[in-house]
Design brief:
1224 residues; alpha+beta; 6-stranded antiparallel beta sheet; 5-stranded mixed beta sheet; 47 strands; EC 1.17.3.2; signal; FAD-bd_PCMH-like_sf
Length: 1224
């Protein structure tokens, strides 16, 4: 029990565990302490999943429960996020609230920039961030945004004003905050004493003097030094689980005066090694403001890097020896033998995580020097995500010129991410010394760097071409920066280099961490010696069937053959999570490796497909091609991790009679969770769902992987068993969105009109069928009328964890391929893409390629409205002008439509039930078959019941969803839950109302309470069930007949982006969305769903990349390597409009589904990026079409912006090396 989070989970459940590595902010708490060095009370945020429990000596912790609650009073930070609709699933909300609360404790009147910076360490998967920022903007002293977000609801001023009313928010009163505990203040004058805590396997020692520390380090040379636990904590979190590492002795020097000191000397600023990065930032910022700019070149660069280094929760506790080491030329280690000063040069690093600092030494201080006149320093970093991300490549560059000249006296170029350690380009620096800072130097430097900064094509981390190119791009940026400064100081003209001017020189689950293998034995005998061990559970303990899965092609526990990394072999039950983890590591498995299939390409070559292969044909494709030109191409779309903030979790409680069991599960699918593995009827298994911390389709079927294991374990021991997967386990085991390969041939006329399409889709289904036969073929048209279509859909069977449903469920991949060929043919025709798209749009009454008639077709209205509201044509001209004037920054814009079919394509799932109880006091208890995961379903169902019964929403309550109230529930998925459950609720309410009619007629002026009381006294039932099924839905792929969808949702988005051609970075400048949601049941919820889906789509198409080894082992198992969008990734201007006057007669109260349809609109960002890349390529004289696969990561953007730098770093020939990662 090393970190704070396990302690908080006992009684204080507000603080959430999202990742266990300090990457999501769900566990944010406020740490308060009296700082004897600054002589004041400090408040700062920290990650409870990393903060050591032993470091809480003399420290106060405030959790979300400590600032307010619904029983007494909400704190303004809680109230405003709730009332501004900034909380959906709610799992991230406590962490975000605590980040805001801590900021308000330190700055009761913050600027908007302060608020944005405070959230750099927090993630949200549901909201799209906009409502959080808008709600908290009410605390800001000025209303300006760095992320200059605009209100949603542009088309309806009333909607704008009533999403929330800030005038009703309670004011913030800083005088009413809890005081710092007096008993901790009394400790400030007492002498500090050494503290020692001993656990089962770890000893924590907190010395109070430097002498004690160096003596302890001499005694325990391999001891780890911990202050904030941001480094060791992550190692403990990840490496202890994955690599079985252990740190028996930990030394905590946080209270040692010398290690907290800050000294301003003649040469620079010296920071004690225990100074946090936040305090370093504060000191440097003050120095930059007070000192001459020529002295603070290094300080300014350090501050810029610190801004993007982790989040505040990390910077508040991380210390200079871990974070600032790369920026400092001098460090001071000390030991029992004394103190020495070490220069950080090319000899400092001796290997990965190894330096010349001796094991018995401790780092005392780090000096950051002043810069001199004529000295310039820059630091650069490129990552997948701008905020809180580890660099792909980073560098520090320094040049000193001979006095009054532009001749190089000294130059240092250091790079991270190009070797196991930080390395210096020594040969390049030597060659550049004594040279004039001009274009010839630039050309030679790039040539030399291209040779010196080489990487093996198999280098860990991959992205070899990109990383090599970045080393040149960064130097070019440094060259231009220095050139500008030289010009400014020397009052001369700036000669900006353009590419063309310089030459062509160019519980704990046990899985087998092997892919496909046969295992012969499992030995759990050593696990029995671990404290707290209860028992080991495997296939032989399953009382019912070990067969599971939607297609009955999976097993609860692996038997003999393991078919993927993450296939569960067994489980260890122990008294604590830590003990179960230790016991699981002690289980021994003998195995023999088999040859796996990992990628789509391998599956195609080996014809490894999950049957059936689906087809849709319409018209005469051959004739269509004969009458038109055609384009042959393909596109790959990567998968996506759900990254719900709450991982899969289950609590199984056996009842002890007749096999009864109660399951508390985070699931979207209660019926499938009534596990058959126990060998008892479903009427003995009660599944309960209060709410989920996000789902997005990931908990529709894959939760049964964990639930069945936990249920079997509880059945075996006859006691409650609980398991919540760690983030890395969840990502490894549960699968995600399917990667897709689309191959197409499209025929078209010279005016851009599409005549014929032949397309094949290959999805990586993983090791089982699950829900892989989705709706991709039904969305291959997106919104376009294609007269002749021939399509095939293949699900590749591979040895990866089974992929599954994810918001959009195959639709986004199908539509993405459509927009790819639409983009290609527009280029081929030489026509504006928006014109080509528009002439191919469907019209009212058209038949789709699956022969369904389009009724209530509002897409063209959405299109015209989006063109108008986005000021598309005027902005397009401005973008063209911008691109003419800028070589290394380019802008692009794209407008994209979507047509999304609504209903389950499996007809019998389009049903729902509801149960309504009316009590004698007039209150109503409502239950329905849908689950709440942040999409506002319960809120909408209460609204439906309120409107149906004619009573206030305050009288209606939903407690939970459970199988003993509404049986045989369809999963909460496919965006239909509000439709089908809403109608079921409405029907149940109508039954109640029909029974009340005679009473209401006899007492028309009576109140609801009067009528209910009379009904009860007249023995009239006040309980009713409701049921609904969608009529006339069903489709036959063989005959291409039927009606797969009940209706369609429509929308259009226009997005503008700006790319950095040198680094591949991009900014989302502006997005306008117009969405048809019918007559909205709840505009605030619907706008939140649109924004949340759009931002999730930004992740899918531009950021989130799952990376696998050639053997199929997942590298990206947490927020450290897998990046979802953060606060800073949303469009700077974000407008969402709901189409007016478009009632939908086919759903409850004329509404429409909204959960999935908006997600694909974020493809507008992808194709805007592609548009910008075209402009960059044209400047390099490259005009032919190019392939851009999804996601459009910085790597793909940079490599596509072909220029001299990319030509100097060519790719190795495929097949000549083993890549670090493969595209699955």
């Amino acid at each position: 029990m090393f970190s704070l989070i396990p302690v908080l989970s006992v009684g204080l459940c507000g603080t959430k565990l999202g990742c266990g590595e300090g990457g999501c902010g769900a566990c944010t708490v406020m740490i308060s302490k009296y700082d004897p060095f600054q002589k004041k009370i400090l408040h700062h945020t920290a990650n409870a999943c990393l903060f050591p429990i032993c470091a809480l000596h003399h420290v106060a912790v405030t959790t979300v429960e400590g600032i307010g609650n619904t029983k007494s009073r909400l704190h303004p930070a809680q109230e405003r996020i709730a009332k501004s609709h900034g909380s959906q699933c709610g799992f991230c909300t406590p962490g975000i609230v605590m980040s805001m609360y801590t900021l308000l404790r330190n700055k009761p009147k913050p600027k908007m920039e302060d608020i944005e910076d405070a959230f750099q360490g927090n993630l949200c998967r549901c909201t799209g961030y906009r409502p959080i920022l808008e709600g908290y903007r009410t605390f800001a002293v000025v209303s300006g945004f760095r992320q200059c977000l605009k209100h949603s609801g542009r088309l309806s001023p009333l909607l704008l004003l009533h999403l929330f009313d800030s005038s009703k928010f309670q004011p913030l009163d800083p005088t009413q905050e809890p005081i710092f505990p007096p008993e901790l203040m009394t400790q400030r004058n007492k002498e500090q004493k050494q503290v020692c805590f001993k656990g089962e396997r770890v000893m924590w020692i907190q010395p109070t003097t430097l002498q004690e520390l160096v003596a302890l380090k001499s005694q325990y040379p391999n001891a780890k030094l911990v202050v904030g636990n941001t480094e060791v904590g992550k190692e403990k979190s990840i490496e202890m689980r994955l690599k079985n590492m252990l740190y028996p002795v930990i030394l905590a020097p946080a209270w040692i005066p010398e290690m907290n000191a800050v000294q301003h000397t003649e040469t620079g600023v010296t920071f004690g090694a225990a100074c946090t990065l936040s305090s370093v930032e504060e000191v440097l910022r003050k120095a930059v403001a007070e000192l001459p700019s020529y002295k603070t070149e290094i300080f300014q660069a350090a501050l810029e890097q610190l801004r993007w280094f982790a989040g505040p929760q990390i910077r508040n506790v991380a210390v200079s020896d871990s974070g600032m080491l790369a920026h400092s030329p001098l460090i001071s280690p000390c030991s029992t033998e004394g103190k020495r000063t070490v220069t950080m040069d090319e000899k400092f690093f001796t290997g990965y995580r190894k330096t010349i600092v001796k094991p018995e030494e401790v780092l005392l201080s780090v000096e950051i020097p002043y810069s001199k006149e004529g000295e310039y320093f820059s630091a650069f970093k490129q990552a997948y995500r701008r905020e809180d991300d580890i660099a792909i490549v980073t560098c520090g560059m320094r040049v000193l010129f001979q006095h009054g000249t532009s001749r190089v006296q000294e130059v240092k170029l250091s790079y991270g991410g190009m070797a196991p350690t930080t390395i210096l380009a020594l040969k390049t620096c030597q060659e550049l010394t004594g040279r004039d800072w001009n274009e010839k130097l630039l050309q030679d430097a790039c040539r030399l760097l291209a040779g010196e900064m080489d990487l093996s094509p198999s280098a860990p981390g991959g992205m070899v071409e990109f990383r090599r190119t970045l080393t040149l791009s960064f130097f070019f940026k440094f060259y231009l920066t220095v050139l500008q400064k030289l010009s400014k100081h020397q009052n001369g003209p700036v000669s900006v280099a353009r590419e063309g001017s310089w030459g062509k020189s160019e519980l704990y689950i046990i899985t087998l961490l092997l892919l496909l293998s046969f295992y012969s034995s499992v030995d759990a005998s050593e696990a029995q010696s671990v404290p707290g061990f209860v028992c080991f559970v495997s296939a032989k303990d399953v009382p019912g069937s070990n067969i599971t899965g939607i297609a009955n092609d999976e097993t609860v526990f692996a038997e003999d053959v393991v078919t993927c990394v993450g296939h569960i072999i067994g489980a260890v039950i122990a008294d604590t999570q830590e003990h179960s983890r230790r016991a699981a590591k002690a289980v021994k498995i003998k195995y023999e490796e088999l040859k796996p299939i990992v990628t789509i390409q391998e599956a195609i070559e080996k014809q490894s497909f999950i049957k059936p292969i689906k087809r849709i044909k319409k018209g005469d494709v051959k004739k269509g091609f004969e009458e038109s030109d055609h384009v042959l191409e393909e596109m790959y779309i990567g998968g996506q991790e759900h990254f719900y903030l709450e991982t899969h979790c289950t609590l199984a409680v056996p009842k002890g009679e007749d096999g009864e069991m109660e399951l508390f599960v985070s699931t979207q699918n209660l019926m499938k969770t009534q596990v058959g593995s126990l060998g008892v009827p479903s009427n003995r298994i009660v599944v309960r769902v209060k709410r989920m911390g996000g789902g997005f389709g990931g908990k529709e079927t894959r939760n049964t992987i964990l639930t069945t294991v936990v249920a079997v374990a509880a059945f075996k021991i006859g006691r409650p068993v609980r398991c919540m997967l760690d983030r890395d386990e969840d990502m490894l085991i549960s699968g995600g969105r399917h990667p897709f390969l689309g191959r197409y041939k499209v025929g078209f006329m010279k005016n851009g009109k599409v005549k014929s399409l032949e397309v094949s889709y290959y999805s990586n289904g993983g090791n089982s069928a699950d829900l892989s036969h989705g709706v991709t073929l039904l969305h291959l048209d997106n919104s376009y009328n294609i007269p002749n279509v021939s399509s095939m859909g293949f699900v590749c069977k591979t040895n990866l964890s089974s992929n599954t449903a994810f918001r959009g469920f195959g639709g986004p991949q199908g539509m993405m391929i459509a927009e790819c060929w639409m983009s290609d043919l527009a280029r081929k025709c030489g026509l504006p893409p928006e014109e080509v798209r528009k002439i191919n749009l469907y019209h009212e009454g058209d038949l789709t390629h699956f022969n369904q008639k389009l009724e209530g077709f509002t897409l063209r209205r959405c299109w015209d409205e989006c063109l108008s509201s986005s000021n598309y044509h005027a902005r397009k001209k401005l973008i063209e002008e911008f691109n003419k004037q800028n070589r290394w920054k380019k802008r692009g814009m794209c407008i994209i439509p979507t047509k999304f079919g609504i209903s389950f394509t499996v007809p019998f799932l389009n049903q729902a039930g509801a149960l309504v109880h009316v009590y004698t006091d007039g209150s109503v208890l409502l239950t329905h078959g849908g689950t709440e995961m942040g999409q506002g379903l319960h809120t909408k169902m209460i609204q439906v019941a309120s409107r149906s019964l004619g009573i206030p929403t305050s009288k209606i309550y939903i407690s939970e969803t459970s199988t003993n109230t509404v049986p045989n529930t369809s999963p909460t998925a496919a965006s239909v839950s509000a439709d089908i459950n809403g109608m079921a609720v409405h029907n149940a309410c109508q039954t109640i109302l029909k029974r009340l009619e005679p009473i209401k007629q006899s007492n028309p002026k009576g109140s609801w309470e009067d009528w209910i009381k009379t009904a009860y006294e007249n023995c009239i039932s006040l309980s009713a069930t409701g049921f609904y099924r969608i009529p006339d839905v069903g489709y036959n792929f063989e005959t291409n007949e039927g009606k797969p969808f009940h209706y369609f949702s429509y929308g259009v988005a226009c997005s503008e982006v700006e790319i950095d051609c040198l680094t591949g970075d991009h900014k989302n400048v502006r997005t306008d969305v117009v969405m048809d949601v019918g007559t909205s049941l709840n505009p605030a919820i619907d706008i939140g769903q649109i924004e949340g889906a759009f931002v999730q789509g930004i992740g899918l198409f531009t950021m989130e990349e799952l990376r696998y080894s050639p053997e199929g082992n997942l590298y990206t198992r947490g927020p450290g390597m897998y990046k979802i969008p953060a606060f800073g990734d949303i469009p700077t201007e974000f407008y969402v409009s709901l189409l007016r006057d478009c009632p939908n007669s086919k759903a409850i109260y004329s509404s429409k589904a909204v959960g999935e349809p908006p997600l694909f609109l974020s493809a507008s960002v992808f194709y805007a990026i592609k548009d910008a890349i075209y402009s960059a390529r044209e400047d390099s004289g490259v005009t032919e079409p190019f392939r851009l696969d999804s996601p459009a990561t910085p790597e793909r953007i940079r490599n596509a912006c072909v220029d001299t730098f990319t030509k100097m770093c060519p790719s190795a020939e495929p097949g000549t090396f083993k890549p670090w990662s493969v595209r699955v």
